[in-house]
Amino acid sequence: MADSGEPKPHLLLIPYPLQGHIIPAAHLAVKLAAAGFSITFVNTESVHHQTSLAHHQLPSSGDPFSGARDSGRLDIRYELVSDGLPVSFDRSVHHDEFMQHILHRLSSNVEALARRLLPISGLVADTFFVWPATLARSLAVPYVSFWTEPALVFSLYYHMDLLRLNGHFAAGDNRKDMITYVPGVPAIEPSDLTSYLQESDTSSVVHQIILKAFEEAHRADYILCNTVQELEPSTIAAMRKEKPFYAIGPIFPAGFTRSTVETSLWAESDCSHWLNSRPAASVLYISFGSYAHVEKGDLAEIAGGVAESKVSFLWVLRPDVVSSNDTDPLPEGFREETAGRGIVVPWCCQIEVLSHAAIGGFLTHCGWNSILESVWSGVPMICFPLLTDQFTNRKLVVGDWGMGIDLGGGKSQPAVRREEVAAKIDELMRGEDGRRAREGVSRVRGKLEAAVAGGGSSARNFERFVEDLKFCVL
Length: 474
Ligand code: UDX
Prior knowledge:
By secondary structure, this protein is an alpha/beta fold. The protein is built from 20 helices and 13 strands. It has helices at residues 19-34, 45-54, 66-72, 95-104, 106-116, 132-139, 151-158, 160-165, 195-198, 205-218, 233-242, 272-276, 296-309, 334-337, 350-354, 368-376, 390-400, 418-430, 432-452, 457-473; strands at 10-14, 38-44, 76-81, 122-126, 143-147, 222-225, 245-247, 283-287, 312-316, 342-345, 359-364, 381-383, 404-406. Strands 3-2-1-4-5-6-7 form a 7-stranded parallel beta sheet, sandwiched between helices. It has a 6-stranded parallel beta sheet with strand order 10-9-8-11-12-13, with helices on both faces. The longest helix has 21 residues, at 432-452. It is globular, with a radius of gyration of 22 Å. The two termini are 17 Å apart. The mean pLDDT is 95. Bound molecules: uridine-5'-diphosphate-xylopyranose (UDX).
């Protein structure tokens, strides 16, 4: 957009301090800046510290947007707030304490920053925060709620009161009847609800966060969702009757290549050399995302299945994927048994890996970013959800869109057996179900591409949102 010299509306954009939320928020910041907003992107000190180390920089130097800002002449400022804990605090080990601080401490620090940065025209904040509508009201600016998961998941949380009224909220395994009453949402099994809507113990800090965050979401002025209208038409149409709800996904870095914004919380291993040596569509990519933990027994069964399948693989194994005290949880003998046909790395540039021609399948925990990235790369999936929205996302991938195979996963232990893992890997990489899933991915990919192309639904929804917000704030 040409710079008219007019003052730009200034938006404060605050991602949830977890990897799967920071990545799309950073790309949203770039999109909004390119659409003529002045953006202040707010990271926590801890995220900043970790990102700097991952990118081999001193935490005192620079900010992650310097590359994007220079190449696009974008108006993006970068600010830090404390989440109330020292940067050295291990947030993965002491997760509840971390969440308590997000719940109770972050808002006052964000408010102090917002007041220091006035004038502000709007607050763009992750839907999972428990304070944005309240803060936006006190600053007399609109609250734009940014939702990084499918519209279906948003709608289920948004209509939690209906689930409660009908006895499906926190029902554990006690209810088997379909949920048919959520506006716009096609009938859904209770086991396809997010883990937090299923669990009968609702005393956890995450439950408190969700309850409060969706009270705030009910007061949001606009909702941006990283999905595509053609994928979830009835859910989105129903949400639009409630709120100005814009499906603007998929939100990716420009060109779907390594981002110019430094968002990675861990150093990325370079896998390209190894991938270049493998035949097309021969490698299974395995990752459980940035956040979830896997039971050690399940990991052993999955490893056994990978070994038995004889498939080539690239496995991202975060050092804390089982627990921080068990940094090499693979079963004894696995590395020897699979030597020469697989590599295990702690973290990688996932979009680079997924878009490499050697990748033929993705064994995924069904994080929403991973699903969108896999579809964009034309890669079919084996689904092994672990928590939160991942169960609902699996329903979309396997049941609704025919893009993958279900590996089960759930409450019993172990949730999977090695023979089953091996058989499903074989089916995905070489079988008829795999071929069908590849076709499903290709169909959905067409919808994603059309949505973000000029005149497509996501492109138009984004333009409409920009017009609506500018009309409101200018
Ligand atoms: C959680 C939720 O499940 C997800 O639906 C929500 O949108 C974000 O939080 P998470 O574990 O973060 O999930 O997974 P995912 O949504 O897949 O996001 C992980 C991100 O990290 C992806 O963008 C992926 O490209 C990136 N990643 C992952 C890497 O860059 N390298 C890796 O090695 C693994």
